[in-house]
Amino acid sequence: MVSDWPHLLQGGFFIALLVAAAIWDAKKQIIPDVICLGIALTGLLDFTSEKLFGLLTAAVFLFLALFLGGLFGGDIKFSAAVGLVLGFQKSMTGMILGLILMLAFHMIHTLIWRRHRKDIKKSYPLAPFLSIGCLAAYFLC
To answer: What was the pLDDT predicted at 3?
Structure first.
């Protein structure tokens, strides 16, 4: 149990920073660099060289931003920072879970708003959904 303290400490900081990113993005639609840096530094608490491949997660989001639009630099930095904590496999799992959650939310939101004949929101802050997906990947995978 004593040798597991870096992982426990990392988990606590990781949760706190993901919640902070989700709240900040939901309120202001921006993910501050200091939160992304904090998440990346959290990766140093239980670092292995394989986790460097987690940076490739950001490449996926960079590609999406360049060719599809709708993503901004904060989302890309966020995914890179999370990749350093989770590694490639877990971070991709977290991102996919988060995107599926966002899609489900959008579908439900669209059905409700169409029923009330109101304009449908076209964009959502991404960090709340990605944070939930990444937390699931951190603890379940």
So the answer is: 65
pTM reported for the whole predicted model:
0.89
Residue tagged 């202001």 (tokens): 28
In this prediction, residues 16-29 reach a mean pLDDT of 97
Buried b (16+ CB within 10 A) or exposed e, 35-74: bbebbbebbebbeeeebeebbebbebbbebbeeeeebeeb
Task: Tokens for 106, please give them.
Answer: 């959008």
Whether the CB-CB separation of 127 and 75 falls below 8 Å is answered with yes
Q: Can you read off the two tokens belonging to residue 110?
A: 């669209």
Beta strands in the chain (DSSP E): none
Mean pLDDT, rounded, of the chain: 89
* Whole-number Å distance between alpha carbons of 133 and 122: 21
Picking from 63, 73, 82, the residue whose alpha carbon sits closest to that of residue 137 is 82
User: What is the 8-class DSSP label of residue 116?
Assistant: T
For residues 60 and 99, give the distance between their C-alpha atoms in angstroms, rounded to a whole number.
13
Look at 65 and 33; give whichever has higher pLDDT: 33
Report d(CA 111, CA 82) in Å as an integer.
32
